[in-house]
Amino acid sequence: MIYWKNNTNRYGIVAVSLHWLVAVTVFGLFALGLWMTGLDYYDSWYKHGPWWHKSIGIVLFLVVTMRLCWRLINPPPAALSGHEVWEKKLAHLAHTLMYLLLFAIMVSGYLISTADNRAIEVFGWFEVPATITSLPNQEDIAGWVHLVLASILIGLVVLHAAAALKHHFIDRDRTLMRIFGR
Ligand code: HEM
Question: Which among 61, 83, 116, 168 could bridge 176 via Cys, Cβ 3.0 to 4.6 Å?
Fold first, then answer.
């Protein structure tokens, strides 16, 4: 039996797929971002790297927006009964912060890329036009914010994953299995 939607007890396949698609993409974009900014001008990836990073970043924005809409019409299951109140509050805070960081990272990435008034080409499918282009020192400040927030997000994700592993291996509950749709 395939469960597309979440119910009070389990995550459905849509929420599970979106969770892991976003997770893999975020780690991939972080690694690509660090790698491409260290490349030499004469490296062939000096231009390809940012093209992939920006295209994937814009698609990720659409996917995270869809994920949030799906979450609004189809709320996640209730926390497991064994979880303490503080654990539930902390998990909820971490989830909210991850969504906020994701959007702030994507907005700052947009502001870096469009600071020179050029649109972002997304896989050659469509373009996202430049809008805000004259903030003081826009490219450098947005670049700094983008890197700092992305590093904070990765730190938070590591804590989030550690919490999930603690529930699995120490508390031996279904928290981790649920985000695999079990
Ligand atoms: C960039 C990486 C990740 C992001 C942005 C992320 C984000 C989130 C968010 C926002 C939720 C809340 C459910 C929802 O709103 O759909 C969630 C749930 C969950 N995530 Fe992640 N996650 C990431 C990686 C991981 C990893 C690596 C693991 C495990 C090793 C993991 C384990 C879980 C579990 C177990 C839940 C369910 C928690 C519950 O039922 O309360 N996540 N994740």
Answer: 168
